[in-house]
Amino acid sequence: MDQTILGTEKLSKLFIKFTIPSIIGMIFIGIQGIIDGLFVGNVIGENALASVNLVQPYMQLIMAYALIISVGAQSIIGISLGKGENEKAQNIFRTALISLTLVSIVFTIVGLFFSDNIALILGANDALLEGASTYIKTISIFVVFVSVMFLFEMVVRSIGKPNISLISMVIAVVINIVLDYLLIKEFNMGISGAAIATGISYSTAFFINIIPFLSKKTSVNIYNGKFDKVEIFPMMYNGSSEGVSSISNALSMFLFNTALMKLAGEGGIAAFSIINYIAQVGYMILFGISDGIRPIVSYNFGSDNKERVSKILKVAIMVNIVIGIIIFTVMTVFSKPLIDIFLKDGQSVLELASNGAKIYGLAFLFNGLNILISSYFTAIDDAKSSIIVAASRGLIFIVVGIFTLPYIFGISGIWGTIVFAEIITIFIGFKLLRKNKLSNIKLEY
After folding, report:
1. DSSP letter (8 states) at residue 181
2. Cα–Cα distances in Å, from 154 out to 18, 35, 84, 239?
3. Residue partners of 225: CB distance under 8 A and separation at least 6
4. What is the model's pLDDT at position 2?
5. In terms of pTM, does the model score above 0.85?
6. Averaged pLDDT, 101-107
7. Which string of DSSP letters, residue by residue, matches 190-227?
């Protein structure tokens, strides 16, 4: 298989071929966090679970720069290959690889030597400081592998090999489960064991995804191309919406943790952790669809085949709507039994999280479309529109909601902030689609 199938193969077959591995791969990424949560919550306790959740804004910052570079590179590489500009695609890849490695080294140093400071900035109190600092310091050892893995995992789809990504995620999750059991339960390594298990699993995915790029016959590989500083800004600008999403997640999680600490203490943060773990599976499915169609959209947009772009986008919209309804139903009907899996005790946390999950679940009626619209704009190199959508749902209206709704609805207002942000954003997203002047794509919605 090579990248030319993106412009020639039947779209229904192509949609399945690219989105199914992407969805499964993204679910496995989400499962990795859930696995840590299950072992930490049941073996160590709710304070440890709160400590790990407190660290998530730091993890989101790592994700932010990794996705800015990786997604930006993937989209431009896809468009370049669609235009037959293989040399440019190779140069973009080399530039992305070097840039990502250098930034990762900086994060590794900061995480190793300033873990206490980072934990305090994130709001750790005396009960959570040691656990949060330990997780930061330990996971920082693996930052280079975690970050660069995303680049290989994204670009491997643009060269027509989505199954490599899927295989890497499946193996990584299996390794994570085994290591969590051994390090947390059997060897009593606590939070550091959870971080080591996650780090090794991502590193394994890195080594699997790099395999196609070790061949000089691959259209994009690690040997050819040159570092081109001129391409850094266009690449990062194009991927910036994904970075905005991760940075926004980091800020919103910080705001949620701060608000919940004031209203409900460590139990509130533990409840938020559990809701996040459950919602993460839903998010990963929706992101999987968006990530799966992005190389298809980029290649056909580069080939000036607007009809194929329009058709694939319409299919993705319909699928995301159906999946959003299913996720909402699951979070509403099965919230208590799902949450109970993460707790060895703590009835108050169970009730708090159960009520929160029912409100939070409403967001899935809207966020699938918002995620898809933002990803679509990234795929066609319209970074500005993508950033507007990403910032609206993940930052601007989260800030507005978190500083207003809790004063009106109490703790229910915290959970409702996500729903508020997604509803406002969906109107903005569709307005941007109607105004889009980059193509003749006609969408009926």
Report:
1. I
2. 12, 23, 19, 12
3. 87, 90, 91, 92, 93, 94, 95
4. 55
5. no
6. 96
7. HHHHHHHHHHHHHHHHHHHHTGGGG-TTSSS-SSS---
Q: How far apart are CA 375 and CA 242, in angstroms?
A: 8
The domain limits of the chain are 9-435
The closest alpha carbon to 48, from 114, 156, 119, 135, belongs to 135
* pLDDT, mean over the chain: 84
Contact 28, 173 (CB under 8 A): yes
Q: At which residue do the structure tokens 């409403």 appear?
A: 362
The mean pLDDT of 111-137, rounded to a whole number, is: 91
CA 140 to mean position of chain CA atoms: 18
Residue type present at position 400:
V
What tokens appear for 109 in the block? 């140093």
CA distances from 25 to 37, 120, 205 (A): 19, 33, 11
Distance (Å, whole) CA 344 – CA 373: 40
* Amino acid identity for residue 168 in this structure: S
pLDDT in tens, 188-213: 898 999 899 989 999 999 999 999 99
Residue with token string 């109107």? 427
Amino acid at 435: K
Report the amino acid identity of residue 363: A
